[in-house]
Amino acid sequence: MKLAGKTDVGRVRQDNQDDYRAGELPGDAAWGLVCDGMGGARGGQEASRSACDVIERCFQQQYSRCLPGEEEDFLRKTLLSANRFVFQKAAQDETLAGMGTTAVCALVRSGKAYLCHAGDSRGYLFRDGKLTQLTHDHSYVQELVDCGTITVEEAEHHPQKNIITRALGVDYRLVPEFTQLEVQPGDELLLCSDGLTNAVPKAQLEQLLRTESFYDLPDRMIRTANENGGSDNITALLMQVEPMEVRHG
Prior knowledge:
With about 250 residues, the chain is an alpha+beta fold. The chain has helices at about 40-60, 70-90, 140-145, 150-155, 195, 200-210, 215-225; strands at about 1-10, 20-25, 30-40, 100-110, 110-120, 120-125, 130-135, 175-180, 190, 235-240.
């Protein structure tokens, strides 16, 4: 597995409330995480950093006990642990009241990718030159699209696009959404905050993924988002299933 990521404050905001983590795991596996905090500058930073800390610790301390077939249970419990931690922290400090964070977490191992998320930070698959969204936004505007009230095109510029319907730390109860898929050598997963997807159209992301080298991609995506306006924090994390090595002999 190859990993590459970057986060940036953007061109407008004073603080970066995004955070991300990633790491390699035994058996050519890897994990990645992007969080986008909310609840004021301090609250948003605290929420995303705390959630990342808890989830990273779960991978470090508990992943070795995640047997084949237990990936969904492991990821759900990991996000629920972060949710409880952020919720309790907000309850204990009135200056952090109302803080929360989105989260999209991916685990890739044994030819499969497992994603668990809450909020509107997204996971994508890039394969054969095409970018496919894997996650479903937990947002008010997405609900309007789902029930046919507005179109996907109208949703892109809706004034209430920033209203999130599911996030870590906002409520003691949380139901993260889970998805899984088979991956092939050469596939790339993109995990990102809405600061990227709101600023860079899908066609432009596809063009970058087709033309830029892997380790340059996060920087180029962020630079493009900033050139397009960059009004929010921007985070891009890429995970590539490495192509099979061809041996000649």
